[in-house]
Write a structure and sequence with these properties.
The protein has helices spanning 7-14, 41-59, 161-166, 168-175, 201-204, 215-228; strands at 26-28, 34-35, 38-39, 76-85, 97-106, 111-120, 123-137, 146-149, 180-181, 184-185, 193-197, 236-244, 254-264, 267-276, 282-291. By secondary structure, it is of the alpha+beta class. The chain has 2 domains: 1-166, Roll (Thiol Ester Dehydrase, Chain A); 176-293, Hotdog Thioesterase (Thiol Ester Dehydrase, Chain A), CATH 3.10.129. Strands 1, 4, 5, 6, 7, 8, 11, 12, 13, 14 and 15 form an 11-stranded antiparallel sheet that branches. The chain has a two-stranded antiparallel ribbon with strand order 2-3. The chain has a two-stranded antiparallel sheet with strand order 9-10. It starts with 6 loop residues before the first helix and ends with a strand. The model is unreliable at 1-5 (pLDDT under 50).
Length: 293
């Protein structure tokens, strides 16, 4: 087990943070938080997503993130991108204390960014950056079309130009306005293999009936296991950039296409594209750097 500092001292090492109402700043790790290779990335993303929503609610003066439009219909904070940097999740073990230091910024009229730095003991083990906007369904009961909306209660948040600049790379990935990213070349993209996932409503969708944002990288990990076993058994994330471009309806399948990869003795890198099988519309892109023992 890692030697422990008091949570306040660890948060000082991680940088400035915001106390998130209703969310613990220190979590004692057990089986729900762990995978075979350390901290569960899927659990971590879900937890950070919950912190993101809670911070937005705090900023809007709300007890819970129950955002609604003037007609009283629900609106949702949809992720545009999620990035994992400087990850060392294999350092986390059962009974360790995982310390969170989180902050929230407004980066445009209707976009918000949260940054979550995490540590176990004295060791920082990663940073998760999440960018979202608010949307409502363009058609009731369908997830193919979304309309962006603004939340008046958040207009008082000042714009943070520094945080906005940090989101530029992933904004370019979403728009297709890029040439190279962490060693991948857009012009060299080619379908090298594909893996089809049939998402399960009881496991892969959230309470708002959307394909959950954490399911996208989970699908990519399943494709990685299919294409790169047995070495993928020991892979741990070092960096991952996810951009979200769309969603699916329950019952639709997702095609996971491997566009590029690099395999070295101690490193596996890949770029996957996720698309709806029905109309081939792209719903996400995932760029991953994984460490191998």
């Amino acid at each position: 087990m890692n030697s422990l500092l008091p949570p306040t001292e660890v948060r000082h090492l991680l940088g400035r943070s915001l106390s998130v109402a209703g969310m613990p700043e220190a979590v004692t790790l057990g089986m729900p938080h762990l995978s075979m290779n350390g901290l569960s990335e899927s659990w971590l993303l879900k937890d950070c997503g919950n912190r993101h929503w809670s911070m937005l609610a705090q900023a809007a003066g709300m007890a819970v993130p129950d955002f609604r439009d003037p007609a009283g219909d629900p609106i949702y904070a949809a992720f545009l991108s999620v990035s994992v940097r400087d990850a060392a999740f294999e350092a986390a073990r059962e009974h360790d204390q995982l310390i969170f230091a989180s902050r929230l910024a407004r980066i445009s009229r209707a976009r918000y960014m949260s940054v979550h730095r995490i540590a176990v003991g004295r060791q920082p083990i990663g940073e998760i950056t999440m960018t979202s906007t608010f949307v409502r369904r363009a058609e009731h009961g369908r997830n193919h079309g979304m309309a962006r909306v603004e939340v008046p209660a958040l207009r008082q948040m000042r714009l943070d130009p520094d945080a906005a600049a940090g989101a530029d790379d992933l904004t370019a990935l979403r728009s297709g306005d890029w040439q190279s990213h962490i060693g991948f070349s857009r012009s060299d993209a080619a379908a090298r293999d594909r893996f089809i996932v049939d998402p399960c409503p009881g496991q892969d969708f959230n309470g708002a009936d959307f394909l959950y944002f954490a399911s996208y990288p989970a699908f990519v990990d399943r494709a990685e296991w299919a294409f790169f076993r047995p070495r993928a058994r020991f892979a741990t994330t070092r960096r991952r950039d996810i951009v979200y471009c769309g969603n699916i309806d329950p019952g639709e399948r997702v095609v996971i296409t491997l566009l590029q990869f690099r395999r070295q003795p101690d490193r596996l890198a890949h770029w996957y594209r996720l698309a709806r099988e029905t109309d081939r519309a792209i719903i996400g892109e995932v760029f991953t750097l994984r460490g191998l023992p």
